[in-house]
């Protein structure tokens, strides 16, 4: 691919601005651990919301969407569209609870909600498990996308791509802390939006495509356009639609879509000025993530079916790409190789921005676990702020190094996505209920974590070799159903066989966070003098459902208009506007 001097100048300017932001925020970020990881808990909703969107505007996301569309059509996106239910639950139920908790990380929550050795073990283990191992896998999938983009668009080797992407990211992330990440995300978000929309518009004008109408009428593409799967074949509609909507969104744990909020989403909520800003940030994120961004990626994915209908066509066009990196997800960067001078620079900068925004967030989030929930809590409780910031910066560098090494071994973003869902299967319900049901204890979470991991290893590693449970290749979705069922039954048994947390721990948590009292009645009834807060959980659930219909309607309204179906497009738009009106009208009553 021919990258002009202008394109390189655009890319260079992007790198320079990103580094300057890191340098600009370095002094304030280094003043304390709270500043480095939470920006002083003084961030506005719009900056936090844009940062969340920029983080999930990862370079592996358009690759993942392309992989899905090429395999399962537009309807295949329910694999991640279903997580909107989780997101809206976080917006209207959990955002304010997280902000009230005033913890530094979501792992610190364990010693607020539970007590004793079980709580300490959970915090320490998950600090390493999530902050290092799990986090490294996520960053490796992002780095894999960078490798494929660098190979197709710039002719770079995997090592060269990783060196360029990681060095700049590590510099501004380690210097600027969360504030540097947030400000850089804000800048990178707009670059990413311009790049994705610009690429989609240009690709539609390629001679091989001709126009949007020609694309939609193409014999290969026309069968991929439905929003819903073919309901005549259970092996199609169950894994693509029923499973994500009925089970996956509440039962699985995935970074950025944790049931009940968590991870870097919780980090953003915890750094908000107040509860209202925490709610506003997560609402903006979910609207933009699900309704604003998907269609440019989908259009490019559909276009790739015309130009590169098979993986062999990709291999022929890009013979220098290693065989183990060839897959349907490669089609997205392959399509970008057709872009002209100038737009190439913008799109490359947008893809680099997508890589760097995601990596920087995960680096800061992961290092916050290492520092706050492991080093400070268990290694050196009397560490100074200067020492904590230093450890945070060192862990940032190490995390990037580990993820780069793993990225060289991965081949598909979709494969990694499925494995991560499998590992977290059955744990999600705990993260939803632990705020509202007094009976859940530390051993509930420990058992769920252990069982889900063992079950995932069984279905992903042991069973394929030994064939102990017959799972037909066209019914692989059964693995998730089995995993969720086994894990859920397992942790429920453990919950009722172990002692609940002490009353004083439960009451302290209830007083601080003030969740809906329904699931706490058994404890509260033992203390008649305890003030019971009248909650609004029913209204919050109603707003969650309203928000879900609003965003899905906006998403499909755009799709209908793209397909030229004006009447359904207007109907969906009216539903979306109606949902928005209800939410705005109810806003003051919730805050």
Structural commentary:
- There is one protein chain.
- This protein is mainly α.
- It has helices at 5-29, 33-38, 45-56, 60-72, 78-81, 84-101, 110-113, 116-154, 158-204, 212-217, 234-251, 263-270, 275-292, 294-307, 311-317, 331-336, 343-379, 385-407, 413-423, 428-433, 442-466, 478-497, 503-513, 521-524, 537-562, 566-590.
- The mean pLDDT is 85.
- The chain crosses the membrane at residues 6-24, 45-66, 78-95, 127-147, 153-174, 186-204, 236-254, 331-355, 388-410, 416-437, 449-468, 480-498, 541-563, 569-587.
- It holds the Pfam family SSF.
Any idea what the radius of gyration is? 24 Å
Query: SS-based structural class?
Result: mainly alpha
Distance between the termini: 53 Å
**Fraction in beta strands:** under 5%
Number of helices: 26
**What is the molecular shape?**
globular
- Tell me roughly what share of residues is in helical segments: over 70%
**Total strand count, please?**
0
Largest sheet: none
* Poorly predicted regions: none
Q: How do the helices and strands follow one another from N- to C-terminus? A: HHHHHHHHHHHHHHHHHHHHHHHHHH
Give the averaged pLDDT, no decimals. Answer: 85
Summarize this structure as a short list of keywords or feature phrases.
591 residues, mainly alpha, 0% strand
Short structural summary:
This protein is mainly α and 591 residues long.
List the helices and strands and how they pair.
Blueprint: H1 5-29, H2 33-38, H3 45-56, H4 60-72, H5 78-81, H6 84-101, H7 110-113, H8 116-154, H9 158-204, H10 212-217, H11 234-251, H12 263-270, H13 275-292, H14 294-307, H15 311-317, H16 331-336, H17 343-379, H18 385-407, H19 413-423, H20 428-433, H21 442-466, H22 478-497, H23 503-513, H24 521-524, H25 537-562, H26 566-590
Helix pairs in contact: 1-9, 1-17, 3-9, 3-12, 3-13, 3-17, 4-14, 6-13, 6-25, 8-9, 8-17, 8-18, 9-14, 9-17, 9-18, 12-13, 13-25, 17-18, 21-22, 25-26
